[in-house]
């Protein structure tokens, strides 16, 4: 009887939504016949600036790595302390292994979303803890510190998985529904993206190895610059795939329009690289701020102690910042050629007007993709770290860390398309909840959350 009553309430809610005027529906952007131009002069300048900076950074980092490689070869012939045949194979293996894992994982997500989702949440803590044990076993001061951090992160991941486990069924349902019909040639896009990631990772691994060979006081700075370049570039590759798939999926859900995948990809590269570069910086930074704000607020609870007196202030600041930089904004970047900040603000406002804010805040798709990357990174770290530990113990710590980053970013690139599908599903629903292209998945969840709050 309770189930029948719940279903009846959902149908009544949907009918009421159809009868009342929606401010979002009145604001809804008309379907663009062609790729719409950016109309804001300031927006055009900012996007062109970041596009220029990104390509300039690629050129400079390539020249820098080539210089380091040549310098390292010369330096190596004088000191003989660096052993390339013992340093490079574990890292190159990590690159190949991460690519294979990324392909398998995105295939598993497509064919069996439920198994992939649960595996990410339960395997990631276990694998991260195993990496921590490996690093502690290496027994260097740096490895001990990183190993302890890894074990603490594994404990946090376990607690988080237990905390959010009641949301698994809904998250799996949304993931299954939104990825049921992926855009044509999605696999080709994933292959292309991972291939570019492999080539770029090989280039940077060469630079990291040669920076290690220099024994210079600048070595740490050189390696930090290379890793920052890897992080930004991999984010751009991931978000380029995300924007392309988001545009195709959103236009189909919102207007029933079919867009050629190759055309969408060309438009993304030609028109949207600047916005993607901006978003690739803002989203990770604001994500860290928002995550830390949640952690501080949970730790503070309802206490009024001085130590936690600013918890609410910090949380409010994080909530405001996320309005100007969130991954949902990539959908409108692709569909309407908006600047990233404007697109983020527009989508966040839509979620608020349609009562989706709480649902979006509790969405587990981002956590699923993040933990999938952590799992991939941990596997690569175990493979490469164990190899390095056996053949040259002094390389084991840094090889394990670099392999982790490679595996993490490679898997995140492969998981961009399911994240794009889920984002498009939510944004298209927020614009037109009455569309016949949506089932009762979201209304049912909203009704369930309202019952829990009552």
TrEMBL record:
List the keywords (alphabetical): Membrane, Transmembrane, Transmembrane helix
Major place of residence:
membrane
How would you describe this protein's topology in the membrane?
A: Multi-pass membrane protein
List membrane-spanning regions: 54-75, 87-107, 119-136, 143-166, 186-208, 220-237, 272-289, 368-390, 402-428
A Pfam family recorded for this sequence: Choline_transpo
Give the CC-aspect GO terms.
plasma membrane
Subcellular compartments: Cell membrane; Membrane
Source organism, top-level taxon: Eukaryota
Entry GO MF terms: transmembrane transporter activity
- Family in the record: Belongs to the CTL (choline transporter-like) family.
Primary role: Choline transporter.
PANTHER family membership? CHOLINE TRANSPORTER-LIKE (SLC FAMILY 44) (PTHR12385), CHOLINE TRANSPORTER-LIKE PROTEIN (PTHR12385:SF84)
Q: Protein name, please?
A: Choline transporter-like protein
Q: Tell me the organism.
A: Malus domestica (Apple)
């Amino acid at each position: 009887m309770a189930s029948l009553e719940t279903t009846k309430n959902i149908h009544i809610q949907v009918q009421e939504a159809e009868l009342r005027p929606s401010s979002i529906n009145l604001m809804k952007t008309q379907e663009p016949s062609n790729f719409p131009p950016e109309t804001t002069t300031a927006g055009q300048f900012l996007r062109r600036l970041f596009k220029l900076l990104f390509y300039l950074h690629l050129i400079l980092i390539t020249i820098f790595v080539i210089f380091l490689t040549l310098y390292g070869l010369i330096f190596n012939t004088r000191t003989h302390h660096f052993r390339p045949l013992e340093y490079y194979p574990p890292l190159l293996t990590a690159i190949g292994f991460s690519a294979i894992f990324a392909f398998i994982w995105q295939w598993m997500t497509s064919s069996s979303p439920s198994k992939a989702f649960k595996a990410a949440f339960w395997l990631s803590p276990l694998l991260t803890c195993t990496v921590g044990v490996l690093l502690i076993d290496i027994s260097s001061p740096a490895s001990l510190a990183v190993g302890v951090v890894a074990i603490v992160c594994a404990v946090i991941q376990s607690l988080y998985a237990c905390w959010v486990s009641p949301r698994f069924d809904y998250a799996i349902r949304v993931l299954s529904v939104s990825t049921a019909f992926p855009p044509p040639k999605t696999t080709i896009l994933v292959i292309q993206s991972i291939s570019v990631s492999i080539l770029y990772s090989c280039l940077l691994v060469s630079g990291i190895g040669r920076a290690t060979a220099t024994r210079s006081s600048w070595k740490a700075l050189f390696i930090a610059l290379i890793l920052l370049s890897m992080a930004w570039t991999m984010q751009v590759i991931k978000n380029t795939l995300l924007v392309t798939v988001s545009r195709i999926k959103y236009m189909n859900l919102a207007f029933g329009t079919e867009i050629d995948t190759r055309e969408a990809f060309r438009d993304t590269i030609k028109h949207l690289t600047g916005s993607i570069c901006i978003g690739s910086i803002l989203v990770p930074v604001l994500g860290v701020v928002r995550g830390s704000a949640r952690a501080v607020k949970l730790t503070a609870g309802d206490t009024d102690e001085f130590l936690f007196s600013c918890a609410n202030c910090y949380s409010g600041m994080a909530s405001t910042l996320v309005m100007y930089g969130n991954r949902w904004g990539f959908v409108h970047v692709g569909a309407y050629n908006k600047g990233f900040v404007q697109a983020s603000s527009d989508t966040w406002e839509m979620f608020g007007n349609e009562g989706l804010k709480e649902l979006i805040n509790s969405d587990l798709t981002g956590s699923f993709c993040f933990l999938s990357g952590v799992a991939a990174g941990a596997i690569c770290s175990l493979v490469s770290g164990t190899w390095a530990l056996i053949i040259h113990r002094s390389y084991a710590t840094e090889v394990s860390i670099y392999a982790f980053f490679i595996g993490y970013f490679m898997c995140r690139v492969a998981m961009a398309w399911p994240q794009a599908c889920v984002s498009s599903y939510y944004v298209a629903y927020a614009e037109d909840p009455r569309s016949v292209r949506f089932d009762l998945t979201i209304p049912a969840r909203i009704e369930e959350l309202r019952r829990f709050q009552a």
